[in-house]
Design brief:
By secondary structure, the protein is an alpha+beta fold. It contains 3 helices and 5 strands. The protein has helices spanning 60-69, 74-98, 112-123, and strands at 2-12, 15-25, 28-35, 41-47, 54-58. The chain has a 5-stranded antiparallel sheet. Strand 3 (28-35) and strand 4 form a beta hairpin.
C-alpha cells in the first residue's frame, strides 16, 4: 500500500485522522481515512471488481483499537463521533471528485455499518 495524495487531516480527542488517496495494489486506487501512525486505513472506498460499484469497508480491529484507547467520556465520544462523521462525509465527496468520477458511489452517510461502528465507539466508554 502506498499513500499517493494527502487530502485532509483532523485531530479528534487523542487521535489524528488523515485522509489519503492511496494505491492498494498495482493500478488499484482507493480513498481512505487513516489514524496517524497506522499503516492500514480505518475505512476505505474502492471499486468492487464484481459489479463495478464503489464500496466502503472498515477495519474492525482499528475501530476496536480506537474504542479501547480513547480516554473520552461517553458524552465526549458522542461529540467526537459526530465530528468524525462530518470529516468523513466531507472528504468522501472530495474522493468522489478526485478518484471515482462518474462512478456508482455508495455514500457513507447512507451506510449502516458507520452507525454500528460509531455506536460501538460511543458506548465503549465508561459512563461519567
Amino acid at each position: 500500500m502506498k499513500k499517493l495524495i494527502f487530502v485532509d487531516t483532523i485531530l479528534l480527542g487523542s487521535f489524528t485522522f488523515k485522509a489519503y488517496i492511496f494505491e492498494i495494489k498495482l493500478d488499484k486506487i482507493a480513498y481512505g481515512i487513516f489514524i496517524e501512525s497506522m499503516q492500514s486505513p480505518l475505512l476505505w472506498m474502492q471499486k468492487d471488481n464484481k459489479d463495478e460499484k464503489i464500496r466502503i469497508s472498515f477495519d474492525e480491529d482499528l475501530v476496536q483499537y480506537i474504542t479501547s484507547n480513547s480516554k473520552a467520556s461517553k458524552r465526549q465520544r458522542k461529540l467526537i463521533a459526530q465530528e468524525l462523521i462530518k470529516f468523513i462525509v466531507c472528504n468522501e465527496k472530495k474522493a468522489a471528485n478526485l478518484v471515482f468520477k462518474e462512478e456508482n458511489l455508495e455514500y457513507l452517510i447512507n451506510h449502516k455499518e458507520i452507525v454500528l461502528n460509531m455506536n460501538y465507539y460511543i458506548n465503549g466508554a465508561k459512563s461519567n
